[in-house]
Here is the input.
Amino acid sequence: LILIYLIVKINFKKFIKKIIYFPLFFLVFLSITLPNKSAIYKLYEVNKIYNGSLIYDVKSKTNSEENYKNFIIKNNLDKYQKNIETFEIPDKNIILITLESVDDGFIFNTPELTPNLNKIIKKWHFKKIKDIDGCSWSVGSLYCLMTGLPAYFPFEKNKIFQNTSKINLNTLSKVFKESNYSNIEYFVGESNFVGTGDLLKSIGFDLKDHSKITGKFKIYPNTFGYHDKDLFYELKQNLKKLNDEKKSFVTFAATINTHLNGIRDERMTSIIGDNYENDVEHAVKSLDYLVGDFINFLEHEGILKNTSVFIVPDHFFPKNKSLKQINDKINKTERSLYIISNNNIISHEDPSQLDIANIILDSVGIKSNVEFFNQNNSISNINEFINNNSNFFSKFNDENIIYNKPLEKIVISIKNNNLTIKSDKNEVFNLNLNNNISSYINLLFDKNFNFINDEYKKETATPRKIRKEDEVFNYNILTIFKKNNIMMSGKIINAKDKTSYNLKINNNNININIPNISKKNNIQIYSTDKERFIAHAGGGVNGVKYLNSLEALNHNYNLGFRMFELDLQLTKDGYIVATHDWKKWKKNTNYKGEIPPLLSDFNNESYKNGQQGLNYLKINNWFKKNKDAILITDKLRSLEKIEEQINIDKSKILIEVFNSKDLKKFRNKDYNVIANIDFLNEIENPITYLKENNVSFISASHKIKEKYKNNIFNILQNLFGKNIEKQLIENNFKIFAYNLNEKKDTVNELDIICKYRDVFYGMYADFWDFTKENVECIN
Here is the structure.
């Protein structure tokens, strides 16, 4: 796309002459079109997993309900829900340690970093394990381990398991439970991140995270709870106690310090020496020491005599460009995942991540009626099969996961520079705040207002922007503006329909009543919200619009309008009256003289339809009588005339402005304004300009809705800078649509409510009746 843009920008004839560009163009063309590896193919793959809901609708035979049911039966997935029976139970306990990102490239290619792991594999049993695309990230690999299924879901991968309450599938942990182990525990430093804790609790593990520590060590709320040194301390304390009490146990644990760029734990530096070059190597060498020390502990305490130990990596070490130095070292031989055990490893010839559950059960001797996906299948190329059927796996997984019920109350507070979120009295998140200057807190919630702890930074200089994924899954974005860690304002925006809800702050606390917000975002609430409807030219009567008459004001006030736009013009002698334009006024009256008329001539003429015209005196009297009404002025730019003749409280007036000079002029006199979108493109940094002048309202033709469509033209345009329309929405400005009910490109009030309320906060309405009980949208 960038290349195409450059071609358009330069002289095309010169481009043709430069032969050097053609190989470049050809390479770009291949990169987006080649089968299997191209950008287009990858988009197709992603869309399959999302069942056609993310990019475009997939309507093919492979997605038919009949084919889906046949796939379930043929691959034994229908057996995942049957009652578990165990036939043979060993007297051995089980320990499984998951090493974050430490694939066998570290063992075989950097032995100086992993001397203990190398000793262990020579002494114990070692088996290579094939990686699976649907298991290639931490929480995804955990799901694969427990279910024997690839973790394909129609969600962004790190949001799948957040707020999970139950999984209706037979899992490895459920087999352990039926095998009558007295303790089934999982140790992890931080369980809230990416839904790890929710997944573990939903499948029956007793979760041991940083909230249940026994040692006195530092917790890192922004870096994964407690670290590896503390993890193995907790494991030792717990296992010694269980062993002394002669209790049976299944203990799983996941390390963290070898994550991505490495988390350096300075407490380990004096132990491991100085033979490392970066934080990753420091973390790997520290972990290797801790694993070796842990095995020695198990031997010393006699725990190994009746315990099967398994050590596995969760996934490959990532190939990020920033990690090139370490990747160059570990890539000397072909890398693989693996399983290490003091037990004989029982498996078929070429096992994958989907077989680890079977390997553990078979190796320790647990016999049951549970059949995992790949147990009895003879699939020659497992990854190819899974990728070809990723949409079926995605649908099956999604059907068998149940999420928490909608919440009632959320409390967000800042105390001692620490942010805390409580959902129905349970603490779900806390964060140390580092930025004392003006900044934003960005929080993400699902459609039921369960907190989603994703990787987006929570504390930023600008508000979080709405992404396509947020819209598709109906997420709610909560943004708090703070200064010196004092909350100044807060707002919730529904990503799908863009409705917003302002939050009240009390003593640096925000209390959110979820049912109230759900009602606020309802279409029926939108359609009866009088702050969203401006009676255009006083509003229409009996199908006639552009009236600007006393009868129009009265009629539409009785229908529920409280915001009234009037087209204000000056008579020849300088008095304010209401009319759209003088030619139309002359046509609708019996006036034969020159226009504009004198005020006396305007007052003496009556409309052919019998309605009364509005001069400044009648306007003042009407708004004085109807104190809850608000006047929106159009056309008139004279500050002097408005101040001289319109005797309405400034808080009840909104001036529509069409250039920056008028905006400044009226704001300097404390008038609220509604800025027409057309002149904003002429201003450098328009968003900053509007905020600095405390402008919240924007008027725009309904035609700007085209700017928000996800078509190629808008995508190309936004590659090189977002248009003003998108910027306004992302910065929470309230846009009111006009040009409704025109003969060309007809859009009416119901269209705005049903189809475009994600774009327009409100509208200049010709016809609307707030007394209607229900609004029905026709698709």
User: Anything to note?
Assistant: Residues 55-62 have pLDDT under 50 and may be disordered.
